[in-house]
Hints:
Number of strands of chain B: 2
Order of helices and strands of chain B: HHHEEHHHH
Distance between the termini of chain B: 62 Å
CATH topology of the largest domain in chain B: Four Helix Bundle (Hemerythrin (Met), subunit A)
Strand content of chain B: under 5%
CATH architecture of the largest domain in chain B: Up-down Bundle
Helix content of chain B: over 70%
Bound molecules: heme-A, dinuclear copper ion, copper (II) ion
CATH class of the largest domain in chain B: Mainly Alpha
Structural class of chain C: mainly alpha
Distance between the termini of chain C: 20 Å
Number of strands of chain C: 0
Largest sheet of chain B: 2 strands, parallel
Largest sheet of chain C: none
Oligomer: heterotrimer
CATH superfamily of the largest domain in chain B: Cytochrome c oxidase, subunit III, four-helix bundle
Amino acid sequence: MSPFRVSTAVALAWSGAALSVAPVPANAAWGLNLPTPVSPIGREILELHNLIMLICLIIFIVVFGFMFYSIYAHRKSTGREAATFAHSTKAEVVWTVIPFIILIGMAIPSTATLINMEDTSKSDLTIKVTGYQWKWQYEYLDHDVSFYSSLATPREQIVGLQPKGEHYLLEVDNPLVIPTNRKIRLLVTANDVIHAWWVPKFGAKKDAIPGYINELWTKVETPGTYRGQCAELCGKDHGFMPIVVEAKSPEEFDAWLAGRKQGSSLEHAAATAAAKQWSESELMARGEEVYAHCAACHGVDGKGLPGAFPAIAGSAVATGPVEDHLTLVMDGKPGTAMQGFKGQLSDIEIAAVVTYQRNAFGNKAGDTVQPSQVQSLR
Amino acid sequence: MSSAPGSYYLPNPSAWPIIGSIGLFSLLLGFLLLLNEGSAGPWLMLLGACIIVVMMFGWFGKVIHESESGMYNEDVGMSFRMSMLWFIFSEVMFFAAFFGALFYTRALAVPWLADTDILWPGFEGGWPTAGPKGPMPIEADTPVSDPAAQFSTIGPWGIPVLNTFLLLSSSITVTIAHHALKMNSRGNLILWLGVTVLLGVIFLYFQAVEYHHAYSELGLTLGTGVYGSTFFMLTGFHGLHVTIGAIMLTVVWLRCLRGHFKPDNHFAFEASAWYWHFVDTVWVGLFVFVYVF
Amino acid sequence: MATADVAHHEEHHHHPSGVMRWITTTNHKDIGTLYLCFSLSMFLLGGLMALVIRAELFQPGLQVVDPHFFNQMTTMHALLMVFGAIMPGFVGFANWMLPMMIGAPDMALPRMNNWSFWILPFAFTMLLSSLFTAGGGPAAGWTLYAPLTIQGGMGVDMTIFAIHMMGISSILGAINIIVTIFNMRAPGMTLMKMPLFVWTWLITAFLLIAVMPVLAGAVTMLLTDRHFGTAFFDPAGGGDPVMFQHIFWFFGHPEVYIMILPAFGIISEIIPTFSRKPLFGYTAMVLATAAIAFLSFIVWAHHMFTVGMPLTGELFFMYSTMLIAVPTGVKVFNWVSTMWRGALTFETPMLFAVAVVFLFTIGGFSGLMLAITPADFQYHDTYFVVAHFHYVLFSGAAMAMMGGAYYWLPKWTGHMYDEKLGKIHFWLTTIFFNVTFFPQHFLGLAGMPRRIPDYALQFTEFNVISSIGAFGLGFAQLLFVYVIVKCVRGGSKATDTVWEAPRGLEWTVPSPAPYHTFETPPKIA
Ligand code: HEA
Ligand code: HEA
Ligand code: CUA
Ligand SMILES: [Cu+2]
C-alpha cells in the first residue's frame, strides 16, 4: 500500500529511544513496535503506522534541530545581543503550507486502507460475536454452532498463589476457531455494556455495542493461535476477558466444525437431563461447578461486593420463592449487570446452580430444583 | 466616601456566594438521597432550595440597592449585560445537547436499529417510536386503551400551536413594555409587563394540561422509549425555563411597581426580557422539531 | 497608590479576617490564590491515586487493590486531574494575571468570581465521598460511558451531581473572564495588544461556555436513564449507547484544548522573556489559537473510530483532526523562532517552557498518529493513548503551569523562589516523566489495553519501568510543594520587573503586587 517499507528504520529509531530510557534484560516476548501482523489489513496498518511515524520523526528532528541549535548557539552567556525581528510573512506562509501538504500525503494511503477495512462484502464465513460481562459468545451463523469463551487462567495464578503460566491472562476455555485464507466476517455486538473485540495481530478491533451490530472482517494467512483482549472498559473484570483465536487450515476447520455440531446444542443436553431425577448431592456438586459463572460477581464465597453485586449468602431471593429465583437467573435483570443465563446454561446447569445457591453459603432453603422445572419456565 | 463617577465599583467581601454553595450542595445532596432511598432527601432538598431563595434575595437585593443608590457606572452595567448574554449562550448550548440527541436518534439510531434484523426482528423504525421493546405508536391525539402496548403523541395543531401563539405574543408584549420603559411611561410598562407574565403563566397552564393528557390518556410518558424521553426532556426543560423566566419577569414587575429602573438604566429588565426572548426562540425550535416534524 | 485611591470601594467597615477573609473575598488575587491552592491539592490527591494505579501495575497479578477499586482509582484520578487540578489551576492563573495584564482593577464580577471558586470544594467533596459509599465511586472511566454508568450505585449519581456543580463553576468563571477581557481593558489596550495569555484565555473561556452545558446535558440524560426510565442510551427503547459518546466527546474534545490553550498562553509569555526578544508572529499565534478552537468542535468522533461509524463519518473526522496539526505547528514554529537569535538564559520557568514545547510536540505527534483512522483501530484503548495524553496533559498542561508558577511566584509573593531547588525540581520532573510515560508507547503498540489492573507477562518490563518512574515523579512534586512554601515564607526580595526585561503590565507594579492593582487605569503606550 504505502510507497516504501520503513519498518527497519523505524524499529531502529524506536530502539534508540528505548535505550535512552532504560536498558531492560532481554525477553523474547516484549516488543517495541506493533506485533507482526498475520492479515492483509494488519499489514497495511503496520506500514501506515511506520510511514507516519517516520514522517513525524523527521519533522521532529528538523524542528528541534533548530531549537537545540538555538539553545546552544544563542545563549546569552556567549555575550550576544538579542535580535529584534518578530515577524516574517514568508516564513509563516511556508510553515503553514508545507505541513498541510504533508498531511495530504498521509491522508491518501490512510483513506485507501480505511476503505478496504470497511468492505465486509464477499465473505466466506460469518460469525456473530457477543460480549458479556465478562466472556465472549461465538455463533457460527450458518452452521448452528455456538459457544461461550471465558478466561481459563486459574484464580490462584492471578492472586499469586501459583506461578504464572506462559499465556497468563491470555488463555480461554473455548477459543474461536477460524479457517485460514478465508474472508471471515464478524458481527460484533454485546449483551450488557460496551466491550471491544480485538486481536492485535489481525489489525482488527471493533466495539461491541449492546443493541447494535458492528461488522468487521479479517483474513488470516498463517495457521496458529492468536491472542487479544477486550479493549473497552466493561466493568470489574474488563482485564479478564481475553480473546483467543485458533486459525486452522480449511480442512482442519471443517473437521472441527463437524465435530462441534454434534452434541453442542442445549436441547440435546436438556433431553437427557430431563429424563432423570437428580438427587440433592448430585445437584449440589454440579451446582458448585456451574457457580464459577456467578463467582465473578457474587464472589467465590457468595458474599458479593457490597453496593455493586449483592451477596447470595442470606439473599432474600436465594432463600425466597424458588420461582422468583429461577426467573431472575434465567432472564436476568435489565439495566443491571445481572444477565439472563437461559441462553448460556442448560436446564440441568441452571437447576444445579440455583439449588446450590439456595443451600450453600449458609443459605438453608432446603429445596432442590429439577431440570424439568427449568424447562417448563423456558 | 461615595462612588466617584467613572470608577468601577468593586464590592466588599460577601458571604452570599458561600451561602449559595451550601444551598446548592444541600439541594443536590437531598436529591441524591431521594434517588437512593434516603429518607432525609426531600427535607434536605427543601432546605437547600430555601437557602438558595434566601441567597438570591440577599444577593440580588444588595445589587439592587447598590444600583439604585447610583454606585454603578456605565461599565458595571455593561459587565452585567455581557454576562447575561453569555449566560444565555450557555443555556442555548444546554438545549443544543438535547436537540442533538433528538436529531441523532431520529436520523441515525432508530434507522440503524430498524436495520438490525438479527437483534430486533420485525422492528420497523420510523418516528415516533418507543424502540423495539416499547409500545407501538398510533395516530396522534388518540386515547389508548393499553398503555403497555400502545402510545399516542400530541399533535401540533391543538394546544402546541396555541402555546406558540401565546409565547410569540408575549415576546411582543415584553417589547412593548420595554419601549414604554424607555419612554418613561410607567402605566404602559406595568400593564404590558403584567400581560407578558400572564401569557407565560397561561402557557404553563396549558402545558400542564397537555402533560396530564399525555400521561393519563395517550400512554405517553417519560419512559415511552426515546420518543417519550426526548419529548418530555425537551419540553420539560423548556417549561422549567419558562417558569424561571416568568419568575424573573414577576420580580421585575414588582420592582416596576416600586418605581425602580430608569429609561436609560434598567439592566434587570433587559436581562429578563432577553431571557424571555431566548425561551421563546427555543419554543419555536421545539414546535417545529418536536411537534410538527 | 493602593491606599490613596479607594474611592470606589464600599465603606471599609467589615473586612473579615482569618478564614472568613478567604471565604468571603471578592479580590481577584485572593481568589486566584484559592484556585491555585485547590488545584495543587487536587493534583497531589489525583497523583496519589495514580500511584495506586502504578503500584498495582508494577507487577503482573493482583497485589495491591481489587479490580473494582482499581477502576475507581483510574476514574477518580482522571476526574481529579482534569476537573480538579488542570482546569482550576488555569483559572487561578487567569484570576491573578488577567486584571494585571490588561490594566483592570479587578475581575468584572467579583462576587460571582468568589462563587465560581467556592462551588468547587463542595463539588469535590461530593465526588470524593462517593468512594466511601457502598459500591464505591465511579468506576467507568472519566468518560463515564453508558451503559456501564447505568449500572453502578449511588457513587455514579454523586459523580453526576459533582459534574453539574463543576459545570456551574466553570461557566460562571468563564463568563467572568470573557466579560473582564472585553469590558475591563485599560484605555489603549486594544485586542491585538493583549498579551497572548489573555488571548488564549479569552478563547478558552468561550470554549468552556460552549461545551460545559453540553456535558451537563449528557450527564443529565445519564441520570434520567438511571432513575426516571428514559431510554436515551437504551436500544430496547430506541436509544443508542453510542449517542452518549457523541455528546460526551462534543464536550470532551474542546475540553482537551481548554486544558492546553492557557498553557500555550503561559509558554508564549515565558519564552520571549528569557529570549529577550518579542514573541514571533503574534498575529499568527492569535489566529492559530482561534483556528484550533474552531476545529476542536468538528473533530470529536476521533475518540470513537471503533464504534462503527459510517465510512464517510470516519473519513471526515480523520481529515478534520489531522488539520489541527497545522495551527498547532504554527505555534511550535513560532516559539522556536522566538528563541532563534535571541539571547537565551535558562532560569527554571524557561527550562519548563522549553521542555513543554519539546514534550508536547511528542504528544502532538502521537495524537496525529491516533488521528489516522486505520492505525487508530490498533492504538485505540491501549497504553499508546495513555502515553499520548499524558504527554499533552502532564508535559503540556501541568508542566506549563509549573513553569508559570515559577515565572510569576516572585510577583505574587515578593520573594524569589530558590532557583537551585527549582532547577532540581525541573530535572527530576522531566526525567521521571519520560521514564514513566515513554515506555507506555511501547506497551500500547505491543497490545496492552488501558484500564486493566493486571496484564499478560510480555508487558512486565515496561510496566516496571513506568511504575518506578511514576514514584520518582511523585516525589519530585513534593519538592515543588516545598519550593512554593519556601518562597511564600520568605526569600530574597524580588524586584518589580523580576526578570531582565519582561514585557507586560504585571511587571510595572511592585512585587508583591499590591492587593488592589490599577485602580486608576495605566497608560498603554
Ligand atoms: C491537552 C490535551 C490534549 C491535546 C492538546 C491533544 C491533542 C491532540 N490529540 Fe489527543 N487526547 C487527549 C488530550 C489531548 N490531545 C486525551 C485526554 C485523550 C484521551 C481521552 C480518553 O480516551 O480518555 C486524547 C485522545 C486522542 C485521540 C483518540 C485516541 C483513541 O482513543 O483512540 C486522538 C485521535 O485522533 C487524538 C488526537 C489528537 C490530535 C491530532 C491532537 C493535536 O492537537 C496535536 C497537534 C500537534 C502536533 C501535530 C505537533 C506539533 C505540530 C508540528 C510540529 C507541525 C508539523 C506537523 C505535521 C505536519 C505532522 N487524541
Ligand atoms: C491532567 C491530567 C493528568 C495528569 C497530570 C496525570 C498524571 C499522572 N497519571 Fe494520569 N490520567 C489522566 C490524566 C492525568 N494524569 C487521564 C485523563 C486518564 C484517563 C483515565 C481513564 O482511563 O478514564 C489517566 C490515566 C492514567 C493511567 C492509566 C490508567 C488505566 O488505564 O488504568 C495511568 C497509568 O499509569 C496514569 C498515570 C499517571 C501518573 C503516574 C501521573 C503522574 O504524573 C502523577 C504525578 C503526581 C503525583 C504522584 C503526586 C505526588 C504526591 C505525593 C507523592 C504525595 C501525596 C500527598 C498528599 C496527598 C498529602 N494515568
Ligand atoms: Cu469486556 Cu472490557
Ligand atoms: Cu480529542
